[in-house]
Amino acid sequence: MAVVMVTNENFDEIKNSEKPVLLDFYADWCGPCKMVSPLVDQIGDEHPEFLVGKVNVDDEEDLAEQFGVMSIPMLVVMKNGEVVSKQVGAAPKEKILDMLK
After folding, report:
1. Which of 4, 21, 33, 100 does the annotation list as catalytic?
2. Whether residue 33 lies in the annotated active site
3. Strands (E), the chain
4. Which listed residue, 18, 81, 82, 83, has the most CB atoms within 10 A of its CB?
5. Annotated catalytic residue 30
6. Taking the domain 4-99, which CATH number applies?
7. What is the pLDDT of residues 23-35, one digit of tens each?
8. Strands 51-56 and 4-5
């Protein structure tokens, strides 16, 4: 499954997914976000067992606030509607996949 753009409108559906959820909080102007984004896209393409979403913090300020985003990129893993892991800053693909285990 491809990466989903997460908004306030579809967040409840995303949060309640039966699959583990990876959320990438980013902004278009953020350099480190541009390094992480292709890795998140690859995970979305290669791992249909996960729901992978991206949250533009400039467009979705309420979601960024709800997750306490202070610095980007920030990756969040949710299982059963609960946050189980967070990573602030750029991370290699292997570390992102480890978060999902």
Report:
1. 33
2. yes
3. 4-5, 21-26, 51-56, 74-79, 82-88
4. 83
5. yes
6. 3.40.30.10
7. 999 999 999 999 9
8. parallel
